[in-house]
Design goal:
Length: 114
């Protein structure tokens, strides 16, 4: 398959994901999902969560919380210490259509589903 080159399409401006995904830059962080207990919510191992600590959270919101010294993804109300609200899930897919695992040497914190 031939790749499309940069010269094949014109673009007025570059897409800045920070502008579209992050409301509070100093309070936002990314975590990589480890575990498959959130598959029913469409969250897979290797996916990246955009988590905002400054957003208000309410019942039923998807959040990252610390429970028993482990970061977990859960719905409010939840036990443990609240880290922040999950605003976006970035799905990471490999060439075979499967969710990509964390790469060796990743320095992002992992979270597991509750």
């Amino acid at each position: 398959m031939e790749r499309v080159g940069d010269d094949d399409y014109e673009c007025d401006e570059r897409l800045d994901l920070n502008r579209h995904l992050i409301k509070h830059p100093s309070a936002t962080f990314f975590v990589r999902v480890n575990g498959d207990s959130m598959l029913g919510a469409g969250i897979h191992p290797g996916d990246i969560l955009v988590v905002d600590r400054a957003c208000e959270c309410g019942d039923g919101d998807l959040v990252v919380a610390e429970c028993d010294d482990v970061l977990t993804i859960t719905l409010l109300p939840a036990e443990g210490r609240l880290f922040g609200k999950v605003l976006h899930v970035i799905h990471t897919i490999d060439a075979g259509g499967k969710t990509a695992p964390s790469e060796e040497g990743d320095e992002w914190p992992d979270v597991i589903g509750d």
